[in-house]
Each structure stands twice: as structure tokens, then as C-alpha cells.
Amino acid sequence: xxxxxxxxxNYAEMELYGILFHVRPFNGNVQFKExxxxxxxxxxxxxxxxxxxxxxxxxxxxxxxxGWEGGDEPYSEEEAxxxxxxxxxFREIVSKFSQDVTNFLAxxxxxxxxxxxxxxxxxxxxxxx
Length: 129
Prior knowledge:
The protein is α+β, with helices and mostly antiparallel strands and 129 residues long.
């Protein structure tokens, strides 16, 4: 699997089975939360723990799994929902990928962290003298 962060589009590209999947993070995904709320209201579910895998999967399509390049079928929300529902292993891969924050870091994030750490270590050395 190859991962390419795309912070400017708020998704990362995950290559799997020769197909490039566009995946957004679960964390802070307002569209996912809003769609899940709409499904809960439609199904008249008050307790989120009563939601089925099918309902959560429906909410993932178009909010977490937001596109793909390659494959036999062009991307659509309906096709994404069907694919996620039909293949539990794939749904689990997408789910775990979308929960890993490191998949969504900006390309220059590593350099920024190194710079901050270097500044901090420089400041702590100055304080000791």
C-alpha cells in the first residue's frame, strides 16, 4: 500500500489493488458526522450504539471514501457504499486508514517538527548557561 498525503484537498491517496483511493480522516470530519446524524434521524435512532454497520458504511461513502482512480466502475457515492458494504475487509482497511492521523500530515510536516525540536533544544541549552 502506498500513501500520499494531500493536505490541500483534505484527503490522502491510498493505493491498493492498483486503484488509487481518496480517503478523508474520521477525526474532525464534519461531513461524516452530519451524514451520520441525518441517517440516525431517518431511522429514528436515538442511541448511536444502536446503529448498524450498514448505516455507518452509508455515512462513510462520500465523506470518508471520497473518490478513486482506476478500477472497473467510476466513483460515485452509491458505488462507494456498495463496495464498502460488499467487502468487509476493504471497509476495515479504509476505516483504519482514515483513523491514522499520520496519513493526513502535510508534506512538509516532518521538517516543521524537526525545526521546532531544534529550536526547543537550542532554547533549553541557553537556559542552562
